Amino acid sequence: MIALITMHELQGLTAQQLGELHQFFTWLLTEPTFDEAERRHILATLENIERAMGYVARPSPKGFTIKL
Asked: Which domain of life is it from (predicted)?
């Protein structure tokens, strides 16, 4: 069974690590052996990774700093 990766688990990862995870989970979608529940977990994880990538790429407003 494919585990769902949550936003909390993704918070401390670098942009490169997030990109590698995104590439891996995108590849998993091409595998025909997963059932519907596993595919939903993969898609939800991809959505979380894409959100986390957006947070990493987004600049902070002036006067604010984000400590990761």
From this structure: Bacteria
